[in-house]
Structures are given as structure tokens and as C-alpha cells.
Amino acid sequence: MQDEPENDTAGRSDDSGLTHAVPPIQGFERALVDQDTEKQWVPVSDRKIRVGVIGYGVCGFGADFSFQDHPNVTVTAVADLVPEQCAALAKACRSEKMYGTGEELIRDEAVEAVFIATDAPSHARLAIAALQAGKHVASAVPAVFGSLEDADALFAAARSSAGKYMMFETSYFHGDLYCMREMYRKGALGRLIYSEAEYLHYLGTPLPAYGAWRTGLPPQWYPTHTNAYYVGVTGGSFTEVSCMGMPSSIPHLQAKNNRFGNPFGTEIALFRTSTGGMARMAVSWEIPGTGDETGRIWTEKGIFDRVFKGMDGKETPLIKRPPLPPGVQPAGHGGSHGYLMSEFIESILQDRTPLVDIAQALNLTVPGIVAHQSAMRNGELLKIPQYVL
User: Fold this and answer.
1) pLDDT tens digits, residue range 101-149?
2) Above 70 in pLDDT, residue 15?
3) CB 3.0–4.6 Å: which of 17, 187, 322, 338 could bond 328 by disulfide?
4) Average pLDDT, the chain
5) Number of alpha carbons in the 13 Å side-chain half-sphere of residue 354
6) How far from the centroid of its chain's Cα atoms is residue 33's Cα?
7) What residues are paired with 264 via a beta bridge?
8) What is the CA 1 to chain-centroid distance, rounded?
């Protein structure tokens, strides 16, 4: 599925920040974040983790998660295929050491943990290489790119590595989903009966992307922002799927014009959940005027749509997100970037499983791969591989 040269592993990401005077790409707008100001951030260690950042992106994605600002992090090295991009990344992350490829950075024994912010087709390859080298790995989404074989290989690498793996799924720290998860863990929601979410990102022309990986992308190959509205709440998974696709009139979303043979600009998946409920997840590149990255859940004890409304009709205020370390910014995608980075770093310092571990990462990603297969088979009901630690 790749047309990049084999060594082009530190390619540019199209998920972009706010530098270079480029207008904000969907998800990177800076929004107010409702943090719990009655609490203070408490460090869990005085140790510093030596991090390497791979991939800068069109507008600075590699630096947007604030690794360089965390009190327990030193950005030891950065990598990008483009020398100018690499230099800009080094400056943004305050790192003196630069590499031309991701593999070179991974071979640096001084680097303990890597953040993979490259093009989606290289995520799995770089993550496997880093895990096999004993590094801790944080990866942008999706964990793998359209390949069930890569999913199994990544799972095996993570299971056998001394390093931890975490996927940076931004929906996990949206204000509403954070509250959903906390309420679910406390038993305040009961069983989830039905979930639904939408990722509607109009792409009349494809976003800039290394190797043009966004051009004609099957919508359900980028499913994690929506699937989080079940997996990220319960920690469960999807067991089977029927998905329908809508042929698109947009040129690059027609099968003859993209390398994926993908004819769909919109794919709507209906999933069976591991707890016996249902979930409807929609991904579309062709609905003008939209920029939705939202979801809601129906539970035994009420409905959560931005806020939780119980059976008595009363609304429960959102549980506020905790304070971040001094200097760390919430940043883009609903203020999730800083939280994801801090969760990854603290999981290393505390030697615990990170929030979006390898099983959850694949249980978020793989259902979309199978959903696209279903859409190509006119909605055939298909079983979904399960990943359990």
C-alpha cells in the first residue's frame, strides 16, 4: 500500500499545528480547556525521560504535544526527512541532535522513548522497530494503516518488548469523553446500550500529506476519533461490523483516481460491541461546511450528549480534567495533546500500563479496516479480530 522509498520513515505528517502562518487544520484550533483549578499538578518522579521526536509535519505536529515543556522530559533528538523541517523541529523541541530518518534516531542508545508523528503508512513500521529496540513508543493515529497483518505484527512486538506502547487518540481527552470514562469507571452510567460518533472532515481537495497518503483514503481507515466513543469509555471492543459506503463525486475519492481503489467518500459502520450493545460510527470526507468530531452514548442510567442527563432529566456537570504540569499546554484536538503526552510520560515513570495501550490502540484501529472491507462487499457482516492483554 506504500509508494514511499523504503528508508523514508520520518516523513511529514499532515496533522498540523499552528506555526508557519498556515490556517488551522480541523482539530488544531485552540479551545478553552476546563481544568480542575482546585487541584495542583503533583510530580510522580524527579527523573527525566530522554525522548526522540520523529516527524515535524506541514505545520509542526511533532512539536505540538509539548514534550519539550514537560518537567520530566528532555528531547534528546529529532528526525525528519526534510532538512529544513528537521531543523525547525529541533528548534521547536530545543534539541541539538538531528537525524535524517526515523531509523537513525531509533538506533540512538541515548533515546529512551520515541514519539512517532510521521505519515500514517509508516506508523506501524517505525513503532515495531522502536519496540524491538527496547524503546517506549507513542504513536499518532492510526496504529496501523489498512493492514491486519501489520496489526498482528505490532501487537506481537509490543507484547515482547520491554518498552511501553501508547497511541495518542485525541478523543480520549475531549472534555465530554473524559467525563464519560470517569463516570463509567465509577459505575454512574451502568451498561452502555448504544454509542454513536461522527468524524466529518470535508476534503474537496486532499490535505498536504507525505506520499499523498490522504488522497482517496478509505474513510474507515481513519476510525479512531469516532471509535473512541465506545472503546475509550468502556475499554471494550467491537466484535462484528456491517458498513455501507457512499460513492463520491469528488475526483480523488473515486476508485480510478486513488491508489487504494477506494470509491467511497463516506462510510457508516454499525458495530456489535463486546458488551452486547451497538455502535454507529460515521467517517466522511465529503460533507461541506462540517468539521464534526463528536459523539454521544445511551446508557442504562441516562444519555450523555455533551453533558449527562439522567433518567430523572437532571444534568450532571462535567468532571473537569486534571491540571497539567507547569508549562505544558493542552493544545489542539479539544485540548487533548498535552494530556496524552503527560499520560505517556507518567506511565513510564510509574511503570504502569498507559491509557491507550496496544490492545486498545488496535481495538480502535482494526474495526475500521474490517468496516471498509464490509463496505466494499456491500455491507456484508464481518467478524473483527480481538486484541486482549
Assistant:
1) 999 999 999 999 999 999 999 999 999 999 999 999 999 999 999 999 9
2) no
3) 338
4) 91
5) 30
6) 19
7) 247
8) 20
* Lateral strand order in the sheet of 49-54: 97-99, 73-79, 49-54, 113-116, 136-139, 165-167
Please report the sign of the dihedral spanned by the C-alpha atoms of residue 209, residue 210, residue 212, residue 214: negative
**pLDDT, tens digit, for every residue of 197-226?**
999 999 999 888 888 999 999 999 999 999
Neighbours of 382 (CB within 10 A): 15
Give every CB contact of residue 112 below 8 A, 6+ residues apart in sequence. Answer: 49, 50, 51, 135, 136, 348
What does the radius of gyration of the chain's CA atoms come to, in whole angstroms? 20
Q: Which residue has the cell 480510478?
A: 256
DSSP string covering 345-358: HHHHHTT---TT-H
The whole-number pLDDT of residue 11 equals 40
Give the three cell numbers for residue 242: 456491517
Nearest Cα to Cα of residue 324 among 22, 37, 27, 12: 37
CB atoms within 10 A of CB 257: 13
Tell me the pLDDT tens digit for each residue of 38-64: 789 999 999 999 999 999 977 688 999
Q: What are phi and psi of 358, to 5 degrees?
A: -60, -40
User: Cell numbers at residue 259, please?
Assistant: 491508489
Q: What angle do CA 323, 326, 329 make, to 5 degrees?
A: 75
pLDDT in tens, 346-356: 999 999 999 99
Question: 181, exposed or middle or buried, with CB in 10 Å at 0-12, 13-18, 19+?
Answer: buried
Q: Which residues contact 7 (CB under 8 A, 6 or more apart)?
A: 101, 103
Task: For residue 272, give the C-alpha cell.
Answer: 456489535
Give residue 167's identity as a one-letter amino acid code: M
Amino acid code (one letter) for 200: L
Burial class from Cβ neighbours inside 10 Å (0-12, 13-18, 19+) for residue 124 reads: buried
Quick check: 282 and 226 in contact, CB under 8 A? yes
Residue 25, pLDDT > 60, answer no
CA distances from 244 to 147, 196, 269, 378 (A): 20, 15, 7, 6
Q: What is the DSSP letter of 249?
A: S
Cα pseudo-dihedral 316, 31, 292, 301, rounded to 10: -10
